[in-house]
Amino acid sequence: MSRRGLTVAGLALAGGAGYYLYSAGGDPKVAQKKMEADAHKLSAEVKHDLPGRGKEVEKKGEALTSQAGREIDRASADAKAKFAEAEAKAKEMGQKTGTQINSAIDKFDKTVEKEAAKAKSGISSWFGGK
């Protein structure tokens, strides 16, 4: 401790002793009994307040924990819903794309078959066929 701290602590101790001696009428034994009674009274007040506050803190902690749990559950449900929505959209787009590709292939096949039939009939006509 610094020198100033020791001085302040000493003055506080002397002031406390002076207060109890003055209030006891200068009798040191009565002053000591009053000081012990005040210390016991202060200790009882502190002990009385601490258990109640501990329970309050515990209840508040439980409330905050349950609230945080609800928030986490809600965020998880939101994320799952958004994922399911995105998955459904991707699946739908995949089906549309697949359908479009298949229709384009079918159209191309029909065109090729039609043109091949024309070419075949043209070549057959050279050799006396239909």
Pick out its properties:
Calcofluor white hypersensitive protein, mainly alpha
Task: Describe this protein's structure.
The chain is 92% helix and 0% strand. The protein has 130 residues and is mainly α. It contains two helices and no strands. The chain has one domain. It has helices spanning 3-23, 28-126. The chain is rod-shaped. α1 crosses α2.
Q: Give average pLDDT, whole number.
A: 83
Q: Uncertain runs with pLDDT below 50, 5 residues or more? A: none
Q: Main sheet, how many strands, which sense, barrel? A: none
Distance between the termini: 120 Å
Number of helices: 2
- Total discrete domains: 1
What's the helix-strand series? Answer: HH
Number of strands: 0
Structural class by sheet pairing and helices: mainly alpha
How does the overall form come out from the CA principal axes? Answer: rod-shaped
User: Helicity level, as a percent range?
Assistant: over 70%
Strand percentage, roughly?
under 5%
What is the CA-atom radius of gyration, in angstroms? Answer: 47 Å
Protein name: Calcofluor white hypersensitive protein
Organism: Vermiconidia calcicola
